[in-house]
Amino acid sequence: MNKVKIFLLMASMVFAVIFAFSCSSNNSPELVAQSSSSEDMAQSSSSEWTAQSSSSEGTAHSSSSKWTAQSSSSEEMVQSSSSEWTAQSSSSETSSVSLCAGEEYDPDIFRCEYGELVGKCAGRDYYPAYQICDGGVIKNKNEPSSSSELSLPSSSSSSIPSSSSIVPSSSSVAVSSSSSMPSSSSSACTAANNTQTHYCSNGTIKEYGFVDYGGQRYKTVEIGEQVWFAENLNYNPGTGNSACYSNQTSNCTTYGRLYNWVTAMSLSSNCNSSICLDLIQQPHRGICPSGWHIPSYADYDKLYRFVMSGTSMRESSNNPMAGKYLKSATGWNDNQEKSGNGTDDYGFSALPGGNGYDGNFDYVGNFGYWWSASEHEIRFYALRWRIYYYHDDVGWLPDNKPVLASVRCLQD
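Below the sequence we write its predicted structure tokens.
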């Protein structure tokens, strides 16, 4: 019996071992599967994280690209705005620049009137070219010495005038002996006392001098140390460019003939567009009679200084009146019911002959223009002396050489 029990116990144990082994074998694949599944999940999670990470990096890269593009766009906008501002600024600067006779000026301060700058001084016009406004008082600038010529550029002309330049024949000149030493007699006279043979000069009656030239007799007057024609030149050189105002002979009789600069200077037409300083003599005869010349800037300046030198008859130099003293007492148009005539204190008898250009004529009765022998730094320009009907002063006007203007001759 005991043996049977022992046998059954041992069989049970064997059976239990076999059953346990069998269960262990059945659970192992599941465990392995679970382990593999966990690894797959881990790999899946890792892949998913990597994808998400890549996605994030892509998004970040995309955002970075967008930011860069936006930044670049902003820079371009800033540059564009900067360029636009610069263009506007440049445009604004360009639009604020004005020219008067080729020179820049500020239109908020000055105006350009017939090629000359005009400013305001205590409500009155003044000319900054030769005047200043000092505390509401108009004063003359320190003008160039009468012994020195206006500063001009050296000659740059490559065109030499031909030998056929206009030179009047000296045989046509006859000067009376009375022209060099005018006599004087009574005093306290005015231009109203002028006759065909005598004129009033600064309150003293003097005798005209006379010059015969080109078939016409011209009166001459002594003003300070200078002897001037008392009328505009009316000589027809037969060549070059000259004319009577409006092509009417009667205007030549009254105002003299009008000439372009090269004709007045007896130079080649090449000088209309070139600097011809090397060809200008000192003094320069031009179309004036022998012994006479085209006045230079310095010559006109000397006349101005003498007229404004100051005597008991003169107003203050703060109120230039040279134009009034040199204008003819008749022949000038009125300015707003105010007479444009002068007092003709020296017998100079300046008349408003106007000017001409390209067949057109303007300003007779209003303006008088006289060529000088002085060129301007702009090669197309020379200096003209001017007197206006609405001003009592004199001034300078650089103008195109082809313009027609009057000529006064001055004794050498």
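The mean pLDDT is 73.
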